[in-house]
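WARN retry 2 of 3 for item q-0093 after timeout on previous attempt; input resubmitted unchanged.
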Amino acid sequence: MQNNFSIGEAAKISQVKVPTIRYYEQIGLLLEAPRTSGNRRLYDNTDIQRLKFIRHARDLGFDIDAIRTLLTLQDDPSDSCDMADEIARARLEDVERRINSLVALRSELQKMLDSHCHGRIDECRVIEVLSNHLECEDHI
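OK item q-0093 returned
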């Protein structure tokens, strides 16, 4: 199995864009890659796995600080996973808040559309509600 990948190959395999890989190096999520005599970065399988971990965590909505902590935890596999559980729990709570907000938003939009008048703009419920936030029943 190949163990020296260019940044382009690492990007393709990990599905992380080249500028993002450079950014992750810059902020310390990924160790600075060794370079060839021609100054090209070289990544190994460990780097690729770390990039995949970061990408997956980002896909799940974890912020950079949480990912940094999770990576630190991953680097010491004998430690307790309490902190990882706490980070995931906080993310789940955030997702639940967003879901509740989106459900309220959907409900308000549906009410606006259900009460439309098919008349003139000066009788339009959508325009009326958008013009006065207090018209929203749920105050989203």
